[in-house]
Known about the structure:
Distance between the termini: 58 Å
Number of strands: 9
CATH topology: Immunoglobulin-like
Strand order of the largest sheet: 1-2-7-6-9
Amino acid sequence: MAKHSSIEKLFEEFFFMAKSHDFAPSTPWQPPTDVYETEKNIIVKMAVSGLQPEDISVLFSDQILTVNGKRDNDTTHHKVCFHQVEIRHGYFERKIKTPKQVDANNIHATYENGFIVITIPKAEKAFNSTISIKISY
């Protein structure tokens, strides 16, 4: 019985280690995101806790909103033994195609309590240009 428990523990540890580590660090992760529409705007709300607004880039071009940045892993320089790993680190990117014509020149973004909220005004006619959006906080 003890051997069986040891083998089970070994398998659990192996699979936990495999699941816990990102074997493809070049693959960007995607923060959880809500996209919804009001009468006048399309709203994008993205969970980016642990980041500062200056760590995040927001770009709009050709009806596509691109949000990207990097969350550093502050434990990599320590000798640690993880028991659970769920917080994603490294480069992230999220691309969202706007479902309507929008006024790209009046998009604005705010950061509060770990969320970035991007407000994209709807328009009768698309006002497209490539713009970088500054995040206020």
